Amino acid sequence: xxxxxxQLCRLRKAYLLAVSLFALAGGVQAGDNPRDPYEGFNRxxxxxxxxxxxxxxxxxxxxxxxxxxxxxxxxxxxxxxxxGDFWSAGNSALQGKFGDAGMGVARLxxxxxxxxxxxxxxxxxxxxxxxxxxxxQTLAVWGVPDGGYLFWPILGPRTVRDTAGWAVDSQLxxxxxxxPVAVRNSLRGLRFVDVRTSLLxxxxxxxxxxxxxxxxxxxxxxxxxxxxxxxxxxxxxxx
Length: 239
Prior knowledge:
This protein is mainly alpha-helical. The chain has helices spanning 5-27, 39-67, 70-83, 85-94, 98-113, 122-125, 135-141, 160-171, 181-198, 200-209, 213-229, and strands spanning 149-152, 156-159.
């Protein structure tokens, strides 16, 4: 991928956004949990997100899940997964995992051709594993500390580091470069609905298992994120 001047400008904007988010996070009153130093802010944002989800996102996802046939839903998920494989491969390379990077590029080529623009995940059927890597994970591998847990409406749980990583990821997202704008926004909306639909089975589990839904999601996210950063083999933590 050739990075043009316009893309560099967008990366600069992403960097400035990340710096602003770091500054915002640093100004939030600290909480008692060392993993969640901005808990007061986070719980407020979590409540906002719950309202948005209850009255907008979740009903749309449920309607989509009911109305759309399973093969179509699978093709939509495959398409967006394929769109993200190139930058995922790039992050693998930035982390020094060149074998995973090569596999990501191979998946992209196979699924974009034999899989008809990624609508079918032919690469997985051929034994090519997908490695989901993002810039937040790359920053972690480079030694950037997590900076504390944050919760954002719509975006959901992040750390300060992963929020900065998301700002970069969003600028290199191929969907964000689609024209015309109406098509780009439609694709973004469809991807959001696809992701929210994939989370529907977890809703009942969380509701049944969690006395404190906010804390349950926070702890699950941090545990999963740590596993992702260490490729499923995180070192043991001292108590």
